[in-house]
């Protein structure tokens, strides 16, 4: 009997604790679309990515052209000439791969540029969300736009995206 009463009291206590928590939502996609400097930074990154991609594609195309030339003329070449042509093709492919790594690798130019342009804006957003959560007593703030979001429905009353934008100085 004591166990039943204790269990019932524990369930009731947990229910009251769960009800006391406050939740809020933000839509990070909506917020970033309304920050002009974020849009500008994204455009710069896209432009840079296109430029880097064109450079890599040019090197890859050079390697393909060398290979086509090699295929057409390989029967007329001596062994050492074939080896030189093969080495030139391999070197050109390596050059393209190294450039790809330099630009798009984990510590590449694009990562550094993203850190320089996007991270400060995201940090300001996160700091603002944190301040709002603390000042309004929110236990949890969810990002509605997150890729792993499994939320099916949420009341618009708990969406604080506009308040975040307002505190960042971008009011609607």
Describe the structure in your own words.
This protein is 72% helix and 5% strand. The protein has a two-stranded parallel ribbon. The protein has 7 helices and 2 strands. The chain is mainly alpha-helical.
Descriptive keywords:
172 residues, two-stranded parallel sheet, mainly alpha, 7 helices
SSE map:
Blueprint: H1 2-20, E1 23-26, H2 28-33, H3 36-73, H4 79-104, H5 109-117, H6 119-136, E2 140-143, H7 161-168
Parallel strand pairs: 1-2
Helix pairs in contact: 3-4, 3-5, 6-7
- Residue share in helix: over 70%
Which structural class matches the secondary elements? mainly alpha
Biggest sheet: strand arrangement: 1-2
Cα end-to-end separation: 60 Å
Average of the residue pLDDT scores: 84
Q: What order do the helices and strands follow? A: HEHHHHHEH
Seen as an oligomer or otherwise, the chain set is single chain
Tally of DSSP β-strands: 2
Q: Tally the helices.
A: 7
Round the Cα radius of gyration to an integer and report it. Answer: 28 Å
Shape: elongated
Low-confidence stretches: none
Strand content: under 5%
Largest sheet: 2 strands, parallel
């Amino acid at each position: 009997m004591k166990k039943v009463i204790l269990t019932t009291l524990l369930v009731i206590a947990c229910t009251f604790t769960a009800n006391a928590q406050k939740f809020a939502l933000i839509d990070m996609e909506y917020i970033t679309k309304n920050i002009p400097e974020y849009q500008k930074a994204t455009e710069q990154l896209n432009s840079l990515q296109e430029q880097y991609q064109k450079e890599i594609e040019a090197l890859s195309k050079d390697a393909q052209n060398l290979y086509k030339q090699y295929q057409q003329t390989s029967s007329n070449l001596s062994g050492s000439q074939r080896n030189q042509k093969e080495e030139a093709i391999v070197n050109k492919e390596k050059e393209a791969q190294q450039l790809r790594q330099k630009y798009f690798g984990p510590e590449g130019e694009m990562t550094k540029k993203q850190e320089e342009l996007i991270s400060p804006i995201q940090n300001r957003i996160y700091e603002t969300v944190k301040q709002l959560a603390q000042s309004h007593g929110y236990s949890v703030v969810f990002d509605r736009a997150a890729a792993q979001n499994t939320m099916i429905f949420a009341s618009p009353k708990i969406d604080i995206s506009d308040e975040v934008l307002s505190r960042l100085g971008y009011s609607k």
